[in-house]
User: Which sequence fits this backbone?
């Protein structure tokens, strides 16, 4: 459980779990399942940045529990939902900006959608998983790993 857990949402923990599962699925050549989880890795990382940005209190070196709840509730009501591009473009202050990954507007990971779970087998899944693993690794290392190293998670 991470310090950013709000109710049943724990984005850093979920990102780590999905990253490990996606890595295992790629190793087992289960690329469709890996692709599905890799998008969630990126989504959870971006949402963790947003929570940290809104709730971190430098004076106490802690996250304000009430601010965490407010930020999580605000995120739940926003239109970006699972939209990775919307999550990347939402305003992040200096506190969270340190962890915001550089993802160019044409990055293949933006083609991810949560509706992948309903789609037939993807004939390009191996190539897609390779590309999306690159982006998920970059985002995960820039956010969750760095936040952990910095002692804010």
Assistant:
């Amino acid at each position: 459980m991470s310090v950013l857990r709000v109710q049943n949402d724990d984005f850093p923990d979920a990102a780590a779990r999905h990253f490990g599962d996606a890595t295992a699925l790629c190793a087992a050549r289960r690329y469709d399942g890996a692709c599905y989880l890799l998008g969630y890795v990126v989504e959870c990382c971006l949402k963790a940045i947003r929570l940290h940005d809104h709730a971190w209190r430098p004076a106490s070196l802690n996250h304000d529990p009430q601010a965490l709840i407010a930020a999580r509730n605000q995120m739940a009501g926003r239109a970006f939902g699972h939209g990775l591009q919307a999550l990347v473009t939402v305003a992040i202050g200096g506190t969270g900006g340190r962890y915001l990954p550089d993802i160019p507007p044409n990055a293949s990971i933006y083609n991810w959608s949560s509706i992948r779970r309903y789609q037939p087998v993807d004939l390009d899944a191996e190539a897609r998983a390779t590309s999306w693993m690159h982006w998920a690794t970059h985002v995960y290392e820039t956010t969750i790993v760095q936040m952990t190293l910095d002692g804010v998670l």
Residues 31-55 form the longest helix (25 residues). The mean pLDDT is 90. Residues 11-149 form a domain with the Four Helix Bundle (Hemerythrin (Met), subunit A) fold (CATH 1.20.120). The chain has one domain: 11-149.
